[in-house]
Amino acid sequence: MALETRIYQKERTIKFGALLKASLGDMYQSRFLAKQLAERDIKAMYRQSYLGIVWAFIMPLTTAAVWVFLNSSGTIRLSDTGIPYPVYAFSGTLIWSIIVSSINSPMQSTQAAKGILTKINFPKEALLLSGVYKLLFDSSIKIVLLVLFVFFYGVGFQWSLLLFPIAMLGAIVFGTTLGLFLTPMGLLYKDIGKIITFGMQFLMYVTPVVYAIPKTGIMRTIMIWNPITPIVVTARDLVVGFTPEYINYFLIVLVGCIPLLFLGLIIYRISIPIIVERLSA
Prior knowledge:
Structural class: mainly alpha
Order of helices and strands: HHHHHHHHHHH
Distance between the termini: 44 Å
Strand content: under 5%
Number of domains: 1
Shape: globular
Number of strands: 0
Largest sheet: none
């Protein structure tokens, strides 16, 4: 009987559809592993901390407190925000902290698992999903605190507040999408993490986080074209009951993130095994 002959050769074409389907499939199949990793990391984060979960919102609270002091003391003069300034500053810094955490999440989750990546073969997408679980946990705490803060300053309950978590999901999608593109380089070069930290500090001052968009000038142009602006402004408007001024821009940014998110997942799936091999060499 004649033996069957098979010829194996390197695949020269990248089938993006197949890669995306495999990535999403592995993410779904590894959801239990992702949950276990997230629980482990959350417990480890707060196990030996006296303040514990307070660290989830202490940074945005202190940042807002600094700007409230500068504004109330007359050190700086800020334009009218239409709501109590403490609410404006705290909501802005809290929303900003969620965006920053979303950008850092893919890199941090993958970096933290570097030890097991080189020893155990498992779906790498579980690390991304684990990071999302941790983001949702962290964000839920911050949202509860923000609601209490809003009531404390007399803004009161607004029906639009019920849509705020949806806006925060949009912020997480935006940040995670950007983080996926930065993760491969960030794993190879530590400079990327430092650049992100520096860059986000700069971007905060060209985004209406602690002060309103100017009525005229170049800063107004920069802020309006900044894709993070509609995320921050729309989320804040929903909290205080304003009609979202940049809702259309917000939806455009969110819809634009979807194909980029899928592309980021494909890049992550292709690059991480190569990077793991390089790290283990």
